[in-house]
């Protein structure tokens, strides 16, 4: 198998692995405030998350940055909790450009935190930091494809609830965000480092 294909598959499996549900849960809660009509904004958010993920992989692989794994295991559910809280407290004005810029920045920053979770393993796989381009490109394209598949599934379910079953958007957002907040709170308590 070509190295690019190996890392592409690895990135896809990393993000779409149900055992690593934290990334999936983050994507679900990130999309909870959007409707299918906002698909361009969703794609930009998901790409911002991938870019953040990439930045961390580069920094850790080149030994520029590192955070202990016990802190990362706490920070990841914290990103989910904060996104869920933001969804519930904020207004559902998905057309507001200031709010969208804030959402993009948040997805980028939280992507950096999520990238830390896999960065040490990724660093061990590449062995030689000078050969980082192909592994990083393949891995991140795999992550992006996996995320798009998850988002497509989530937005499809949202469409079913909002347009077919006629659930109100605010209720959908509260249900999804509340469930994600609860799950992330349990995970934060399980992974607390103090």
UniProtKB/TrEMBL annotation:
The name this protein goes by in its record: HupE/UreJ family protein
Pfam families to which the protein is assigned, alphabetical: HupE_UreJ_2 (PF13795)
Keyword annotations from UniProtKB, A to Z: Membrane, Transmembrane, Transmembrane helix
Please report the organism this UniProt entry assigns to the protein.
Poritiphilus flavus
Upper taxonomic lineage = Bacteria, Pseudomonadati, Bacteroidota, Flavobacteriia, Flavobacteriales
Segments spanning the bilayer are 15-36, 43-65, 71-92, 104-126, 146-165, 172-189
